[in-house]
Amino acid sequence: MPSINLPKRIVYVENGIGYGGAIICLRHLVRNLDKERFLPLVITGRGTPQYQDIANEALWQHIPDRHIDSIALRTKAASIEWLAKVPLLKFCINQLIARADDLFNFLPFFIRLLWTSWRFKADLIHANNEPICNRAALLVAKTLNIPCVCHVRGDPNGSHLSPWIYNLPQHFISVSNWVAKSMVEHLSVPREKISVVYDGIALDKLNINANGALFRQRFDVADNAFAVGLVGLLIPWKGQNVFIDAAKLLKGQIPNLKMLIVGGTPDDYLNYELELKQRIINEDLTDTIRFTGHLSEMMEVYKGLDIVVSASTSPEPLGTVVIEAMALACPLIVPNHGGGAEMVQDNETGLIFNTGDADSLAASILKFYQSKQLMDQLARNAQAKALNTFDVQQHATSVAAIYEKLF
Fold it and tell me: In this model, does residue 2 exceed pLDDT 60?
């Protein structure tokens, strides 16, 4: 009898801190896989409605990855002043928190992920984030003796476990050449184990006619206001404080300036959001700065902004914000490091400022404000580059080719 080629079963594991670029790009990939060749199952550690929506386009399962809040415990311990004066006790408490994290968070997630992957008869595990936070997925692949691909979307450094953890995957997908170079230089990952695949978006489905006026009306941004948006999760390294510093510098220079902080706040950083909002009140910036929270209609956001900013203080591998802003012909400003600087050519497809430097960011915003012609030209150049670089079907084809090599 002729053999039947059943689709290969891929388990995707998403353990990010919140609903952001990583899971959005994964959803683009899963939608565009050849379903005759691959059957995807997406497993997420979070289960909010945004994640639940994945079930409308693929098999999806929520396996909680947190039963105790170890990050909050570490933060609480770090805030106890007298504890810092007793190094041995501080060390012991941190070790207790780490072991509690292993016992109550890591171990239950690992066991359920192992059981689910075995029941699903997985042929490959695809970890959608860097190896440290996805060590459970890597160990499940080892236990089941199946290939593992790790999608590295951040700065590959940090933990003393990194050299060991980075030996576990059979192959890495890097979202930029900057990330690939960092893995080779800092962790001695063989270059042949890394494929650079830029994240993809469905360019043909971008709503270039989205009504930006709806976004402006919702957040009280007048038609004659100059709207600058920082888009990204509210976490410290995304640069919200630098953005606020720039707003203070520009407040008296740009009439009707509105600086919008666009993005949701992960549970771990709710106090950070409160600190930012209190800062806005203390520094008399309530008329200039708006917080939007998470927004699902991002096309309206981009079309409603005059300038889009990425201000990350740590190198951004290649944020979804950069890809979407370029594809939608939005004037874009990025810091001079990471994937953004790799993709944006200064004064050709956007403007580049000195990382963490509010004066430099303010100067770039002012440069755009003073020249509508420059804004339009650079935005058109950026869109032309994006249309040739970020096609989601090409992204899916490249990832599928990696799978086939591993099989």
Answer: no
Euclidean distance between CA atoms 304 and 260, whole angstroms: 11
Both tokens of residue 349? 């497809």
Let me know: does 327 contact 261? Beta carbons within 8 Å: no
Name the β-bridge partners of 279: none
- Give me the amino acid identity at 350: G
Phi, psi of 200 (to 5 degrees): -115, 150
For the stretch 149-202, pLDDT in tens is: 999 987 776 666 777 888 899 999 998 888 898 889 888 899 999 999 988 877
pLDDT tens per residue, range 242-258: 999 999 999 989 999 99
pTM for the full model?
Answer: 0.74
Mean pLDDT of 339-365: 92
Domain ranges of the chain: 8-200+391-406, 203-389
Nearest to 300 by CA among 395, 217, 373: 217
Residue 1's pLDDT band, with cuts at 50, 70 and 90, is very low
* Cβ count near 60 (within 10 Å): 19
**For the domain 8-200+391-406, what is the CATH superfamily, name and number?**
Glycogen Phosphorylase B; (3.40.50.2000)
Please, are residues 122 and 146 in contact by the beta-carbon 8 Å criterion? yes
Statement: residue 4 has pLDDT above 80? no
Q: Do domains 8-200+391-406 and 203-389 have the same CATH topology?
A: yes
| Fold of the domain spanning 203-389 | Rossmann fold (3.40.50)
